[in-house]
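We were asked to recover a plausible sequence for a given structure. The inputs and outputs are reproduced exactly as logged, with field labels preserved.

PROBLEM: sequence recovery
POSITIONS: 300
GIVEN STRUCTURE:
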């Protein structure tokens, strides 16, 4: 089946395309490539004839193109390998790819934990041994921008190990976007300046103040439950905390990190301040200023 389609995350799709064609003896750099308005039956047809040396090929990028049935039928019936890049194909095109060729989807990791997992696997392929903190840092800074992460990992291959979080931060040189867990962590360890900076980053990125307060309430409820858990059972792993709290390991780890620095009395006082902030915002006081005051109060 000479039709091979690649969808999903563009970086991953392009990479899978190169690897798949290479396994068939084709170098993507040697193949003609059409994209956007160039993708028409008239432009594609002359590129679909086999070469004197056997299988030829063409790469067709559907970004910005408007493929109709005639074009898709032409691609599917070609006697040479046709590699199609189609980031978000509708169900009808997926069905065609699967019935008349091959379809290689490349889902985009979105959640921080999923991106961190991808970072770890990518690093292993490059011979890098990143610790969990370093992988999470890259995931927090770049989010689902896998191209940016891959570039930073390539830089790290030029440096001697160990490739810990401190080294990675120095190489990347970027601050992660506001993180509500980082905000709580800074506030509960007496670092109001850092906590307020995190809050302002979150607000500047367009986060709704009421949703931010809701996140603080949810996260602090996890912290309070972690405090109770550690008092009952002593030192608790993030896996056990995640199981007992009914959450994923990442928020459990973050909540545990904060909880280990707090006593029950401190938590009760903080919960009272969070309640006061909630009432103040609902009564119409300035949300941003109320949140900043709350964060400072949680820092003392």
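RECOVERED SEQUENCE:
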């Amino acid at each position: 089946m000479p039709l091979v389609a690649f969808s999903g995350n563009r970086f991953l799709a392009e990479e899978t395309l190169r690897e798949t064609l290479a396994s068939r003896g084709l170098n993507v750099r040697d193949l003609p490539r059409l994209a956007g308005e160039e993708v028409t039956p008239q432009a594609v047809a002359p590129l679909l004839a086999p070469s004197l040396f056997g299988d030829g090929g063409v790469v067709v990028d559907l970004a910005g193109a408007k493929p109709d049935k005639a074009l898709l039928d032409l691609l599917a019936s070609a006697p040479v390998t046709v590699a199609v890049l189609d980031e978000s194909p509708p169900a009808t095109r997926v069905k065609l790819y699967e019935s008349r060729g091959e379809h290689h989807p490349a889902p985009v990791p979105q959640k921080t934990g999923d991106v961190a997992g991808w970072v770890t696997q990518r690093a292993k392929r490059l011979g890098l041994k990143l610790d969990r903190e370093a992988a999470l840092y890259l995931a927090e800074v770049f989010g689902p921008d896998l191209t940016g992460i891959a570039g930073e990992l390539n830089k790290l291959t030029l440096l001697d190990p160990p490739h810990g979080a401190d080294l990675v931060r120095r190489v990347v040189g970027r601050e992660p976007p506001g993180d509500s867990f980082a905000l709580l962590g800074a506030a509960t360890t007496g670092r109001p300046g850092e906590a307020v900076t995190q809050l302002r980053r979150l607000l500047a990125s367009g986060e709704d103040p009421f949703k931010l307060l809701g996140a603080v309430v949810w996260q602090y409820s996890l912290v309070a439950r972690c405090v109770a858990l550690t008092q009952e059972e002593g030192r608790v792993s993030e896996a056990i905390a995640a199981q007992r709290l009914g959450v994923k390991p990442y928020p459990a780890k973050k909540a545990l990190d904060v909880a280990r620095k707090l006593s029950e009395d401190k938590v009760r006082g903080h919960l009272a301040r969070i309640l006061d902030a909630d009432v103040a915002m609902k009564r119409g006081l300035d949300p941003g200023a109320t949140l900043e005051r709350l964060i400072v109060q949680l820092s003392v």
